[in-house]
Every structure is written in structure tokens, then in C-alpha cells.
Design brief:
It comes from Latilactobacillus sakei subsp. sakei (strain 23K) (Lactobacillus sakei subsp. sakei). The chain is mainly alpha-helical. 73% of the residues lie in helices and 0% in strands. Helix 1 crosses helix 3. The radius of gyration is 16 Å and the shape is globular.
């Protein structure tokens, strides 16, 4: 699946009004915190790393990111491509195509 396709398909589940961007930002922070908590518990508290739960939480983070981009008319594909270009510049020795 392409990022822009994901962005458009995910948008059908977005509800809200003029405060939608605030809701998205708060949701992103919340879901990111859940990912952090899973990693913290694994790293420092001896919990098992549940890949299925982690995958679902990462998906929630992806949804919020895609909808923040959608709300601002930013193609998610463009976000991903520009990030890769930045990383290629930052880490040229690790560049592989």
C-alpha cells in the first residue's frame, strides 16, 4: 500500500470540527506514549515484547500522523520521501538503493 492511499483510506474514519487538529495532535501524543510504555516495560521491567500489540499501537500512531498530514493537505508520500532524502544526507555512508 502506498502512503497516500493509506492516508485517504484512513481519512474516512476521521470525525471532528474546527478542533480536529488539536484532537489529532493529542491522540498522536497519547498513542506515541503507549508505544513508549510498551518499550519501557520490555526494556526495564522484564515484560515480554508483544509484537501484535506493538504493531497495533504503531498503526494507531501512523493513523494520527496521516490524518495530521491530511488535515493540512500534505501528501503522506511526500512526508516519507522528504524524510528519506534527509536521512540520506545525514547518513551518506549508510545510503543503499
Amino acid at each position: 500500500m502506498e502512503f497516500n492511499e493509506y492516508q485517504k483510506l484512513a481519512n474516512r474514519t476521521l470525525y471532528g470540527n474546527e478542533q480536529v487538529l488539536t484532537n489529532l495532535a493529542l491522540g498522536l501524543a497519547s498513542e506515541s506514549g503507549e508505544v513508549v510504555d510498551i518499550v519501557k516495560k520490555y526494556t526495564f521491567q522484564g515484560h515480554q515484547l508483544d509484537e501484535q500489540v506493538l504493531t497495533k499501537k504503531i498503526g494507531d500512531v501512523l493513523w494520527y500522523l496521516s490524518q495530521i498530514a491530511e488535515w493540512n493537505n500534505v501528501d503522506f508520500e511526500k512526508v516519507a520521501q522528504e524524510n528519506i532524502e534527509k536521512l540520506k544526507e545525514r547518513y551518506p555512508e549508510r545510503h543503499a538503493e
